[in-house]
Automatic annotation (TrEMBL):
This is Probable periplasmic serine endoprotease DegP-like. Substrate binds at H125, D155, G227, N228, S229. It comes from Blastochloris viridis (Rhodopseudomonas viridis). The keyword Glycoprotein does not apply. PROSITE patterns: PDZ (PS50106). Its EC number is 3.4.21.107. Its main location: periplasm.
Length: 497
């Protein structure tokens, strides 16, 4: 029996040890060092502080109505009946038989007050072409608004209302300080429901969704729907860090992918619209494109970075400074240009009239130049006024075939067939082999080869000579500058077979 008693004591000790282990061990599948639980943020106080500054915008516009009388067989007894009915009951401007008949179209959006005097920010597309704009506040006060400035390039508009008392306002914060995963709050007017609050995080930054030349959107999973456009995206400090502008959604509703214009991008534009009623962006007169690995190899660059100049505006700041097509801008006014889309934003934000230093690569070597920044809007107006003078077409030359391309000198007949402008000079592409490297890069009949390896060409023989020289140098690809019928340029790197 002593052995039995000893066994019993050991059994009790074993159970106690198992219980101790059970208390100390984490649940199945959990980490041994599980961090303390983190609750969702309480945003009620933030919302209370800012919601009176959020407004709901409704607009009306007159648009041409597409309507017509029912299609009836000629001579039908109903034809005369319907015609008389529509003329009698359609009313002035509403007759379906009138090709200029109009109807009133309404739209809804959101916005926010940035100045107690009645200055409101929203999206340009919310108020674009509107005949009347009304702003409704959280206390249901409804005021008529007027547009004091708009900018389609980043989709911003600034409105003004006349209120009989100072309005609740919020301030634009610093979106550059946002971190991935940071909590943000969207408030707006989705589907016309009025003050709606949604919570999410910053999913990504610097998103390019091809909405404009200065895309660098904040992506968020805070629910954003139709009607949220122009509304604020708040930080937990109650500062506006973004302006809700777009969503990706097959259904039209939120699927957790929304985009906001960063406050850092919007702030200078808002100030310009308030002060001048228009934007005043910097401009240096270059057309640029992305540097791919193949283009980098064709330009003898070590790695793909910077903004490749595809064309230079005649007598523009860059042209006066000596920059030309094929140069790659890698720094602008001391700021690195890591990729193409960095350059338009930094140039646009540069004060007009400032002399800046540009670092660029030419022939694989870095050089620098001083450029005087001009005004974009003035350049756009001038470009619209300028009309190109006709150029004499070169003498015709027998077509040739290079890189799977059927080439010919530009003649009047080819210009007419492909509607190529007189200002475009080079070698015409008249055919493309479907399985050729050129076809893979998107070259098409009607385009014009302007340069091969940064040397101008005027005939198929010129193209062939340049290609032969590059092959002797051991180049794996050939860099071609191609123009479309309107003269817009881009570089293409084609395998040198």
């Amino acid at each position: 029996m002593p052995s039995t008693a000893r066994a019993s004591r050991l059994l009790r000790a074993g159970f106690a040890a198992m219980l101790a282990v059970a208390v100390l061990l984490p649940p199945l599948g959990a980490s041994a060092q599980q961090p303390a639980s983190r609750e969702l943020p309480d945003v009620a106080d933030v919302v209370d502080k800012v919601i009176d500054a959020v407004v709901y915008i409704s607009t009306t516009a007159r648009v041409e109505a597409k309507g017509q009388m029912p299609q009836l067989p000629p001579g039908s007894p109903f034809e005369e009946f319907f015609e008389e009915f529509f003329k009698k009951h359609g009313g002035e401007g509403n007759n379906p038989l009138d090709p200029h008949r109009q109807r009133r179209q309404t739209s809804l959006g959101s916005g926010f007050v940035i100045d107690p005097s009645g200055i409101i920010v929203t999206n340009n597309h919310v108020v674009e072409e509107a005949d009347e704009i009304f702003v409704t506040f959280n206390d249901t006060t409804r005021l008529k608004a007027e547009v004091i400035g708009r900018d389609s390039k980043i989709d911003i508009a600034v409105l003004k209302v006349k209120a009989d008392k100072p309005l609740k306002a919020v301030k634009l914060g610093d979106s550059d300080k946002l971190r991935l995963g940071e909590w943000v709050i969207a408030i707006g007017n989705p589907f016309g429901l009025g003050g709606t609050v949604t919570l999410g995080i910053v999913s990504a930054r610097n998103r390019d969704i091809s909405a404009g030349p200065y895309d660098n959107f904040i992506q968020t999973d805070a629910a954003i729907n139709r009607g949220n456009s122009g509304g604020p995206l708040f930080s937990l400090k109650g500062e506006v860090v973004g302006i809700n502008t777009a969503i990706i959604s097959p259904s039209g509703g939120s699927i957790g992918i929304g985009f906001s214009v960063p406050s850092a991008t919007a702030s200078p534009v808002v100030e310009q619209l308030r002060n001048f009623g228009e934007t005043r962006r910097g401009w240096i007169g270059v057309r640029i494109q992305q540097v791919t690995d193949e283009i980098a190899e064709g330009l003898a660059m070590g790695k793909a970075n910077g903004a490749l100049i595809a064309g230079v505006t005649d007598n523009g700041p860059a042209a006066k400074a000596g920059l030309k097509a094929g140069d790659v801008i890698v720094r602008f006014d001391g700021r690195d240009v890591k990729e193409m889309r960095d350059l338009p934003r930094v140039v646009a934000a540069t004060p007009i009239g400032k002399s800046v230093e540009i670092a660029f690569l030419r022939g694989g070597k870095e050089q620098s130049a001083k450029v005087m920044v001009d005004r974009l809007e003035e350049a756009e107006k001038q470009a619209a006024l300028d009309k190109p003078a006709p150029q004499q077409a070169p003498a015709a030359e027998q077509p040739g075939k290079v890189l799977g391309l059927e080439l010919s000198t530009l003649t009047d007949e080819l210009r007419k067939r492909f509607k190529i402008k007189d200002t475009v000079k080079g070698v015409a592409v008249t055919g493309v082999d479907r399985d050729s490297p050129a076809s893979e890069k998107g070259l098409q009949p009607g385009q014009v080869i302007v340069e091969v390896a940064q040397e101008q060409v005027a005939s198929p023989a010129d193209v062939q000579r340049r290609l032969d020289a590059l092959k002797k140098e051991g180049r794996k690809s050939v860099l071609i500058l191609v123009a479309n019928a309107d003269g817009e340029l881009r570089f293409v790197a084609v395998a040198a077979r």
